[in-house]
Give the backbone structure.
Amino acid sequence: MLRLVLLAVFLLVPGVARAEMTEAALWDALRQGGHVVMFRHALAPGGGDPDGFRVEDCATQRNLNDAGREQARRIGATFRDNGVRIERVLSSQWCRALDTARLAFAEPEPFPPLNSFFAGRGDRNRQTEETRAAIAGFTGPGTMMMTTHQVNITALTSIFPASGEGIVLRPAKGSETGFEMLGRLRFGG
């Protein structure tokens, strides 16, 4: 009886860790379409943004370095090599996220809910719910990419991703979370 109760809690409570799919299984799922990959932007030295930050001026922001630009290109090449069709690319308006999306996939659609809310720059609850709704509503046929920031991914999934790491999600409209977390794709710096 205790095993059944624990199994029910494991399956029904959001945020409880579930077994991740193997990397090969993740690529198979992504080739089928209808999934979302949330990426933390590629390598950008430092943390947060400098004083005087302005979203419309990349010179005031923390940006990708050479290793980050190369990491973003490698991410895109890996998706192409694995035959994943990219249907839509959404991105935070921060330059490091936009540049990651451009270098990896295509010109992104700026999507303000993906903007960082670190240090009070945004509205964590509203942005997280709008992102959740966008994920839950995606049906494909290809894969949707979202390029964002660590705080946004952590708020949504409880995962603290590395720079350039992707979290593979299966939309689940009507579920409490709006998605099922399938696994992580790591693209080290």
Observations:
- The two ends are 46 Å apart (CA to CA).
- The domain at 21-185 is CATH 3.40.50.1240 (Rossmann fold).
- Confidence is low (pLDDT under 50) at residues 1-17.
- The first strand starts at residue 36 and ends at 40.
